[in-house]
Amino acid sequence: MLSNKTVVVGVTGGIAAYKAAEVVSRLKKLGAQVHCIMTEGAQAFLTPLTLRTLSGNPVMTDMFKEPVKWNVEHVAIADLADFFLIAPATANIIGKIASGIADDFLTTAVMATKGKVILAPAMNVNMYNNPIVQSNIQKLKQLGYFFIGPDEGNLACGYSGKGRMKEPEEIVDFLLRLEKKDLSGKNILITAGPTREPIDPVRYITNRSSGKMGYALAQCAQRRGARVTLVSGPTNLDKPQGVDFISVETAEQMFNVVKELFEKHDIIIKSAAVADYRPQSYSSLKIKKSETDMQIKLERNPDILSFLGKNKGNRILVGFAAETNDLKENAQKKLLNKNVDLIVANDVTAQGAGFESDTNKVTLYFKDGAEKDIPLLTKEKIADIILDEVLMLNNKE
Fold first, then answer.
1. Is residue 269 situated within a structural domain?
2. pLDDT value at position 388?
3. pTM
4. How many domains does the structure of the chain reveal?
5. Is 287 within the bounds of a domain?
6. Which listed residue (30, 157, 246, 261) is catalytic?
7. Is 128 in the same domain as 21?
């Protein structure tokens, strides 16, 4: 699957360096040509001999050693790279790259490459959450660098939290998804996140949606070659790279944007948790507490999915159903009533599948009566499965 592709693997000085050996092994089994670069710190955790044996190529460790071939090696290896993977990526290497520092073989080669650069962070949770590190990560993302992870869990330093490097299988799978361009030429409209329905200048009605599923769909679709427009309610998430991003707050605002844009898109995925109701009246001044109970009269918001179902034409339309009971019955009713091609349903009370989680467990319900259970996986993996199904539906049209 990676035949005729060259992956340069940079390994830095962290305990997760041992995982690089499996990453290299998996890449070779997929047919990739693999070249490794190790920093001085990496060699304290893993020997160059290990990576040389697994990759079948010399391991670069020293900028100024006598070259095996007569060329400028850090430039030559940078030119070869289709993918330039750094795993683990320490806070130090992230900071150097973000600052344009090129003081060893690895940073110099990264500076010279035109390949896709992917970083798999691994560090102490407090280091990862440090504002400087986060600023460096955001800067690199904006410049087109890709990041995978880190995960949450027990760390080698004794702490527990975000900072554990993704597993080799997930890292290699990420590279495969970057290589996959099966959605090229497709225009995909995705809605994500909650909506907020204001009561007064300081209060609003909303729900617990984090937007993570919709953002994962947008990022995965973009990596697979689609032109993606993401219409998002308020979230705390970073904007996905390479997508057209439109921020909205209320259901009515989202409806107006979708009405304006949907005809330009081949596929529409409605993953947003849109408020069904809004306050009938809005107070321009903060409502003060009084001795009596407060009553808020609600009115219905526009039903965006129903509108799309009535007007979708030959477009593929995907809806979501977040349920707490009668999952199948409610999902199938929505599938029929809204005229959608696919409903992604989940029980938000299930462990690991509710709001704000990085994982999900869903069932896909199709117009032809078929259904497909997806086990507990990361939302990114589920996004790719959903896109696979959408592509198959599109090819049937």
1. yes
2. 93
3. 0.76
4. 2
5. no
6. 157
7. yes
